[in-house]
């Protein structure tokens, strides 16, 4: 009888298999709870010490016994210690069996939830519903035994192939996947937002400079402003009219006006005045630009005046006492009182409207599939999916537009938000905004054919829209690829229209590109009509949502 046994083909395979046997569900889900409930670091430090002293010791002992005995646990103990040690090997087998019964049960539950998730029946945030689903899973004997048996069959299928082709091979696949789920995905998610806000702070915000002195010192002052982290001198303008036009178009966020005789006043130790006009449409940008520009100019002029006074025979201390820095006058445009409500208005109202539109549209179409009435719904359009779709979504469009009118009345009449531009442009943009998100909702339902999953994806898409809108972090300060990502959300263009017409008073022609961009989203339902017709006519898509 051959005594040949399978061996590990590599150290990596052995380490991964050992890690897989040690890192269980408790280590992933229960450990954070145990650490938090037992003092955090006060728990982790003894835990690490126990792993080092007990865990490492035990695994080394197991390896030594296995290499010395070269057999099963019973055989290895008998060969090393004699027949009186063989029962200890049986204890090891018994422990492995008990662990198997526990993990096969939990593994069966995992397979149950996996199947239910694929079918779209386990997607819920309702705690009561989740508890009901779990109780149903564990209290249904046939289902529980079936999935547990399936889990055991999968495990046996791996073991049949032995150490090399079974345990080692599957460990090299599953353990890296576990690593991806536990570490890589969170890191990737963090990296995504790190790239979105990769500069850490708002930087290189474009401004314009009106240099009415055009001297060496005025040009040095402009250069010093440009060297600040926040401001970037993008335009040299010839008049305030040009600067206000650029600001209304959204190309700049501030205008710095350097007066005539700037150099003369500085060198003669006379006070001069520098004007700073900052857009009040974004409070964060407003504060940062004002602070950095004032700091740059004050530092520059104070240094020049200090040199002038010391050349006149004053000591540095005497000169510091007589310094008269430049008077810095700040003017906030479009939001002169720094009203935070004016800042919230273009974000809160569109956000609420967007969520209403997406959820209601997805639910309206998805319920036809859920209740197996999709074919009857399609029949209302005499077999035309386009006509049936129009009949379904246009009433929602009308209702949502009426809701938006109420929001606008509250915004302008109760909140008191100014309307410096065209109300007609805002209304046109609102209608296109509603239609574009209805179109996206139709696309989501058509592709997924799953009500709950469509609601989840639609909600996630809506949340990301706010992140990329430029209301929390200016788009112009984002990493360039992220600036392009912002264009896949109609929310970005609508808020731009809202701010332009509400606060900036931008001429309506400058809002046409944003209106055109939103119009492009309306063609999405036309692209998915064949898919939607299939979903509505084939019964396999019905009643499982």
Descriptive key words:
70% helix; five-stranded mixed sheet; 545 residues; 5 strands; 3 domains; flat; mainly alpha; abc type-2 transporter like fold
Task: Estimate the mean pLDDT confidence.
Answer: 76
Order of SSEs: HHHHHHHHEHEHEHEHHEHHHHHHHHH
Main β sheet profile:
5 strands, mixed
Low-confidence stretches: none
Helix content: 55-70%
Structural domain count: 3
Per the principal axes of the C-alpha atoms, what is the gross shape?
A: flat
Number of helices: 22
Beta-strand content: 5-15%
Number of distinct beta strands: 5
Mind explaining what this structure looks like?
With 545 residues, the chain is mainly alpha-helical. It has 3 domains: 11-196, no CATH class; 205-333, abc type-2 transporter like domain (abc type-2 transporter like fold, 3-Layer(aba) Sandwich), CATH 3.40.1710.10; 340-541, no CATH class. 70% of the residues lie in helices and 6% in strands. It is built from 22 helices and 5 strands. The chain has helices at residues 11-22, 25-37, 41-69, 73-81, 86-119, 127-139, 141-160, 162-196, 216-226, 240-248, 262-267, 283-311, 316-322, 340-370, 374-379, 385-414, 423-448, 451-467, 480-485, 490-504, 512-520, 524-537; strands spanning 205-211, 231-236, 254-258, 273-279, 327-333. It has a 5-stranded mixed sheet, with helices on both faces. Helix 9 links the parallel strand 1 (205-211) and strand 2 (231-236). Helix 14 runs antiparallel to helix 18 (451-467). The longest helix is centred in the N-terminal third of the chain and has 35 residues, at 162-196. The mean pLDDT is 76.
């Amino acid at each position: 009888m051959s005594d040949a046994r399978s061996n590990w083909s590599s150290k990596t395979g052995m380490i991964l298999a050992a890690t897989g046997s040690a890192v269980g569900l408790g280590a992933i889900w229960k450990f954070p709870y145990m650490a938090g409930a037992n003092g955090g670091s006060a728990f982790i430090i003894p835990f690490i010490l126990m792993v080092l002293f007990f865990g490492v010791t035990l695994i080394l002992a197991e390896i030594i016994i296995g290499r010395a005995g070269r057999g099963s646990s019973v055989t290895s103990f008998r060969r090393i210690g004699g027949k009186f040690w063989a029962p200890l090997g049986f204890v090891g087998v018994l422990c492995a069996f008990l662990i198997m019964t526990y993990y096969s049960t939990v593994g069966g539950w995992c397979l149950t939830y996996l199947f239910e998730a694929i079918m779209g029946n386990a997607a819920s945030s309702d705690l009561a519903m989740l508890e009901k689903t779990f109780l149903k899973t564990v209290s249904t004997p046939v289902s529980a035994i079936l999935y547990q048996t399936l889990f055991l069959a999968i495990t046996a299928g791996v073991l049949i192939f032995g150490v090399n082709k079974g345990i080692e091979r599957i460990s090299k696949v599953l353990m890296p996947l576990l690593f991806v789920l536990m570490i890589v995905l969170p890191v990737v998610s963090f990296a995504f937002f790190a790239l979105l806000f990769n500069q850490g702070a708002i930087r290189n915000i474009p401004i314009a400079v009106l240099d009415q002195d055009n001297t060496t010192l005025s040009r040095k002052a402009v250069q010093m402003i440009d060297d600040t982290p926040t401001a970037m001198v993008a335009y040299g303008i010839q008049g305030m009219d040009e600067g206000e036009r650029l600001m209304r178009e959204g190309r700049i966020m501030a205008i710095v006006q350097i007066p005539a005789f700037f150099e003369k006043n500085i060198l003669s130790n006379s006070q001069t005045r520098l004007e700073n006009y900052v857009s009040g449409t974004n409070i964060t940008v407003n504060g940062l630009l004002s602070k950095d520009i004032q700091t740059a100019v004050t530092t520059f002029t104070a240094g020049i005046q200090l040199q002038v006074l010391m050349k006149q025979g004053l000591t540095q201390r005497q000169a510091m006492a007589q310094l008269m820095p430049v008077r810095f006058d700040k003017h906030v445009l479009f939001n002169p009182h720094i009203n935070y409500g004016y800042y919230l208005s273009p974000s809160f109202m569109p956000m609420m409207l967007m969520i209403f539109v997406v959820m209601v549209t997805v639910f309206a179409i998805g319920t036809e599939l859920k209740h197996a009435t999709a074919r009857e719904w399609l029949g209302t359009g005499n077999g035309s999916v386009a006509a049936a779709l129009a009949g379904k979504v246009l009433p929602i469009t009308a209702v949502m537009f009426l809701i938006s009118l109420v929001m606008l009345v509250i915004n302008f009449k109760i909140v008191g938000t100014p309307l410096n531009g065209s109300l007609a442009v805002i209304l046109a943009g609102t209608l296109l905004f509603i239609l574009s998100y209805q179109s996206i909702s139709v696309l989501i339902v058509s592709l997924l054919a799953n009500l709950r999953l469509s609601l989840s994806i639609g909600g996630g898409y809506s949340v990301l829209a706010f992140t990329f809108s430029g209301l929390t972090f200016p788009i112009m300060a984002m990493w360039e690829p992220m600036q392009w990502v912002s264009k896949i959300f109609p929310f970005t263009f609508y808020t731009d229209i809202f701010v332009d017409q509400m606060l900036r008073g931008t001429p309506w022609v400058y809002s046409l590109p944003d209106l055109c961009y939103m119009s492009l989203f309306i063609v999405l339902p036309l692209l998915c009509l064949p898919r939607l017709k299939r979903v509505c006519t084939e019964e396999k898509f019905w009643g499982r949502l």
